[in-house]
Write a structure and sequence with these properties.
The structure is a single chain. The protein is mainly α. The chain has 2 domains: about 130 residues, Winged helix-like DNA-binding domain superfamily/Winged helix DNA-binding domain (Arc Repressor Mutant, subunit A, Orthogonal Bundle); about 110 residues, no CATH class. The chain is built from 10 helices and 4 strands. The strands form 2 sheets. Strands 1-2 form a two-stranded antiparallel sheet. The longest helix has 24 residues. The termini are far apart. About 20% of the residues are buried.
């Protein structure tokens, strides 16, 4: 793991080299988009800068956003922070530079960094721990869950058709995974799974809900699969399903 000083030095070097390339491009005949000119950055996918400081390798422009090229400083800062996380190999829970460091390293204002961080927190890409600093978030599907539920509630006059669609997708995903899950659990013994099922039976006999046990059951069933995206998607849709079913009556 590279030290904070190594990472800080690498970021400074990356920014300096990026600015040098940007200045060179301004005098060249390379075509640049209006958004790139406004942001003062090299056009995405046209310039690749890699800086090494001992074990630190920072590729410039590695993150390809789904939106159009950044048109505001805050949007450019969001992309730069994502680039930093990817380029330095940071993982969930690793510390990020301080707000002032990011302002200096990225050459942007404090307000741009704060706006970018707020957006990244909402996406669960960055986590702010008050009194401790900023860290790489869990990058979970929580934002997707909240968006799906809200989307389903937008048109209550259509008998919550959007919510019913979500439940239908969850059922379809469960059915599609039935065969691979069955194969993955062949000849397996699992005491934890047995305990979860026993708890579900106990709650059912008492006429009680067993929501948490149901979630644990589904997650445990999917753990042997090689593709962990199935687990994350199922957990997300399970959460959506749990939130939406009471609304459907």
């Amino acid at each position: 793991m590279a030290s904070n000083e190594q990472i800080h030095t690498a970021v400074i070097t990356m920014i300096d080299r990026a600015r040098t390339v940007a200045d060179t491009e301004k005098s060249s005949t390379v075509s640049r988009s209006p958004a790139s000119r406004a942001a003062g950055t090299p056009p995405r996918n046209e310039t690749s800068i890699t800086t090494s400081v001992n074990e630190v390798v920072i590729p410039h422009g590695t993150y390809s956003t789904l939106t159009a090229s950044p048109v505001t400083q805050a949007e450019a800062t969001i992309t730069a922070i994502k680039d930093f996380i990817l380029g330095t190999g940071l993982q969930v829970g690793d510390a990020l530079p301080t707000e002032s460091q990011l302002c200096t390293d990225l050459g942007v204002s404090r307000s741009s960094v704060r706006e970018a961080v707020r957006t990244l927190v909402a996406l669960d890409i960055v986590e702010v721990r008050h009194g401790h600093g900023m860290f790489v978030g869990r990058v979970s599907m929580r934002p997707m869950v909240e968006s799906l539920v809200f989307r389903g509630l937008l048109n209550p006059g259509d008998d919550h058709r959007g919510l019913r669609d979500i439940v239908e997708v969850r059922i379809t995903l469960d059915n599609a995974l039935a065969e691979p899950v069955t194969q993955a659990w062949k000849n397996r013994q699992d005491t934890e799974l047995d305990q979860i099922v026993a708890q579900m039976d106990t709650h059912a006999q008492k006429g009680e809900l067993f929501t948490e046990q149901d979630r644990r059951f589904h997650m445990r069933m999917l753990e042997p699969l090689d593709n962990h995206l199935f687990l994350h998607l199922t957990e997300a849709f399970w959460a959506v399903h749990t939130l939406t079913v009471p609304l459907l009556g």
